[in-house]
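Incident review: delayed structure delivery

Summary: a single-chain prediction request sat in the queue longer than the usual turnaround. Root cause was a stuck worker, restarted by the on-call engineer. No data loss occurred. The affected request and its eventual output are reproduced below so the record is complete for anyone auditing the incident later.

Affected input:
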Amino acid sequence: MKKVQVTIDEQTARLLESLAVPRAGNKSFVVREALQRMAEQEGFEGYLDWLEQQPRVRGSLERALADERAGRIQTHQQVLRGTRKTRRR
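Output delivered after worker restart:
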């Protein structure tokens, strides 16, 4: 293990304290977990950027946006209502 010293503002310090309480007060664990999750998020965002550049995906997204702009979409609630009606038959 390597010891690292950082400076944080009061609000972040309170947040760190509150997150550490249910983890036996282990602030180091909270920081390690937060950094790991941030790294995973960065990797996922990179994947999404790559995916968005793929021609077939890009075309699909553009068609979906055109459908949305033209009002050819249904809300989640509308779909659920339609599913319930179908089940009753």
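Verification: Residues 10-88 form one domain.
Action items: add queue-age alerting; document worker restart procedure.
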